[in-house]
Specification:
mainly alpha
């Protein structure tokens, strides 16, 4: 084996190692992007479920307290309907925030879901 062919083989080996390093770095970036996408998607889904639970919880509490309200006259007779209506309003606010969250999830998936990972 001549000295020039040995040097050529060494250069080819260095070139192959460089390409493998670049491919591994590209794959690492791709996996990191997939992980970020999955984490953010899971976080948005969890927030959406929390808003749904809050809406149902406060709507149920407000409705039950309105149903149980008996119009007895007393010093605190106004407190029960006011409290129940405020819980219902809070449930409506939570529903609006939940709708906004669903819109954010759709926007996120339409923007980043089509990426070829």
């Amino acid at each position: 084996m001549s000295k020039s062919s040995f040097e050529e083989q060494i250069m080819q080996g260095v070139y192959v190692l460089g390409r493998q390093r670049d491919q591994l770095a590209s794959e690492k970036r791709k996996l990191a992007r997939q992980l970020r996408y999955a984490q953010h998607s899971a976080r948005l889904s969890s927030l959406s479920k929390q808003y749904d639970f809050g809406m149902v919880f406060f709507a149920a509490l407000g409705a039950v307290s309105l149903i149980l309200f008996d119009a007895r006259s007393g010093s605190a007779a106004w407190l029960t309907p006011v409290l129940s209506f405020s819980m219902l309003l809070f449930a409506c606010g939570s529903a609006l925030r939940g709708r906004k969250m669903v819109s954010r999830i759709r926007c996120f998936h339409s923007r980043f879901g089509s990426w070829q990972f």
